[in-house]
Amino acid sequence: MGVLDGIRVIEWASWLSVPSTGSMLGDLGADVVKVEDPIRGDPSRGMQSGELPGGRGIAYETVNRNKRGMTLNLGDPEGQRLLHRLVSGADVFLTSYSRKLTRSLAADFDTLRQHNDQLVYGYGGSGWGPKGPQSARRAYDVLMQGISGMMWSTGDARSGFPETVAGGPIDMASGMSLGYAVLAALFARERGAGGQEVTSSLLGIALHLQALNVNTTLWTGKPIDRFTDTFGSPMLAYYRCADSQWLIFCEPQLERHWPEFCAALDLDREQADAALAAGTTRPLLDEQVGRHSRDYWLTRFEELGCRFAHGPVNTMEEATATIQVLANQFVTDLDHPTLGPSRTLGFPVSFSESECSIRRPACDFGEHTEEILLESCDVSWDDIASLKKRGVIA
C-alpha cells in the first residue's frame, strides 16, 4: 500500500515539471488523472519520440507513469462542467498553465475552490515565480539555468564560457518541490486548514539548488569562485587514467587523509608535500594517476581499505548499472506493453512500512476517458457518444 492510497489528483499540465509532480504522487499511491486537450494533447509526447518503439516519447514516458489519461476540451462549457465535477471529488489539482489561461477556462484556484473548498491547488504555471512583473513570461529549464546564475557558476573559469547541466534538473527539482508543497498542504488540511493554493517555480528552485553559491554571494558581497577541475585542492579533483577513464576524489578533510592519499597513489611523500606547499600538485597527480587504468586504481583503493572519498566518473550506462543503484531500486524493472521488459528510473525515497511502485506505464492519449467519466461524472454511454460528437472529448 502506498502512503497516498485514496488520494485523487487531477493534473492538467504539460511538458516536464508539473507532470513530474503528478508522476511522483502516483509513485506514492495516489490516483492521478491526466487531462489533455482532445486536439493538441501534451506536447511532451513528441519529445525524443523517434527513439522508442511505437513512436513513444522518452520525456513523456518519464514523467507520466502511474496516471490514468483522459481528454477534455476546456474551451467548451461542457468540458469545464465535467472538469468541475472531477475536481469536486478530488484532493489535489495540478496545473502548469498561466493565470490568464486558467482563468479563461474556469480552471483557476478561485473558480475550482467553489466546487471543492478542501482542494489543494498546485500551481507551477509561472517559471519566473508567481509574483512580479515578469511572472507571465515563458520559461524553460535551460533558460532558467542562465537566468539563475547556474550556467555562469558551472562554466569553466579558464575558458570563461557558461555551461548547462543536461537532463532537465531544474524541471525535475521544481516538480519535486511542488510535490513537497502539495504534501505539506494535505497535512495542513488534515489539521483543519482547509484547501489552499501552493506554488513552485523554475527560478525559485534554480536558486535553491545553488544554496551555497547564493548565500556566499549574499553574505560576502563577492562573486563565487568559478569552476575548475581542482576545486582548489588536489583531493577535490578529477584525473584522467591510462585508459582515458576518469577518477574523482572528493575529500574535504585534506590534512586528515593526505598521508593515506599519498600512500595509495604511491607518491613520494617528500615530493608530494613540496608540491602541495607550492600549489603544484596537479602536474604530479596527472602523471601518477595516468600511469594506470581506472580499474587498477579502484581495485588498489579497495584492497587498501582507503577511507578518503573517491569513485569513478561514470557514464550514464555505468551509473545505472552499479550495485548501489540496483540495491536501492533507484533503477527498477518495468514490463511495458509496448517496450516489453525494460528498466526505468525507480524511486529516490523509500518507506519502512509503505511502498513505492510503478502500477502502470505512461498513459496513452485519452486511454481512460470513458472509464473516468463513467465512474466520476455521472454520465452514460449515450452521453459519451454525444461528447465525442461535439468534440468535448476525443
List the topology elements.
Layout lengths: L7 E5 L4 H11 L3 E6 L21 H6 L3 E5 L5 H12 L3 E4 L3 H6 L4 H4 L7 E4 L17 H7 L2 H5 L14 H22 L5 E4 L2 H7 L2 H10 L15 E5 L5 E5 L3 H11 L4 H10 L2 H9 L4 H11 L5 E3 L3 H4 L3 H5 L3 E6 L3 E6 L23 H8 L4 H10 L4
Parallel strand pairs: 1-2, 1-4, 2-3, 4-5, 5-6
Antiparallel strand pairs: 7-8, 8-9, 10-11
Structural commentary:
The longest helix has 22 residues, at 169-190. With 394 residues, the protein is of the alpha/beta class. The mean pLDDT is 95. The protein contains 18 helices and eleven strands. The radius of gyration is 25 Å and the shape is elongated. The chain has helices at residues 17-27, 58-63, 77-88, 99-104, 109-112, 141-147, 150-154, 169-190, 202-208, 211-220, 254-264, 269-278, 281-289, 294-304, 316-319, 323-327, 369-376, 381-390; strands spanning 8-12, 31-36, 67-71, 92-95, 120-123, 196-199, 236-240, 246-250, 310-312, 331-336, 340-345. Strand 10 and strand 11 (340-345) form a beta hairpin. It starts with 7 loop residues before the first strand and ends with a helix. Helix content is 40%, strand content 13%. The protein has a six-stranded parallel beta sheet with strand order 3-2-1-4-5-6, sandwiched between helices. The protein has a three-stranded antiparallel beta sheet with strand order 7-8-9, with helices on one face. A two-stranded antiparallel ribbon has the order 10-11. It folds into two domains: 8-210 and 349-390, Crotonobetainyl-coa:carnitine coa-transferase, domain 1 (Rossmann fold), CATH 3.40.50; 236-307, formyl-coa transferase, domain 3 (2-Layer Sandwich).
